[in-house]
User: What shape does this take?
Amino acid sequence: MAGTGGRPSIYPTLLYADAKAAIRQLTEAFGFTELSVYETADGSVMHAELVQGNGAVMVGSKGRGGLFDTAMKDAGPAGVYIVVDDVDAHHQRAVEHGVEILMPPTDQDYGSRDYMARDAEGNIWSFGTYSPEIGG
Assistant: This one.
């Protein structure tokens, strides 16, 4: 069953004009770990999986063809929220890598501490401590 045994049941999927640069930014500045990267013969990223905590995102190159690429052709930036233990340290790492910070670490009324950043291609990444219990 998805969502158990270390297998997330939701994978945000983002396409980038320069997926290799996006993977570098996500791993170096945001601390994701590369689980897998599959490239086409021309060096485009067909599919990549990057892990953060017990979740993951999928990344690929725009313009490589296929149904998903065609369906996402006119998609705008996406927003993804990632739970981290130490928001301030995570934010500092992003700053050190030159990431555009939209909101510095901020304590929220609902008990979370989070910050917001924009990646090199306009996607919005929020990192914080908000982690509601999901019943099952």
Summary: The mean pLDDT is 93.
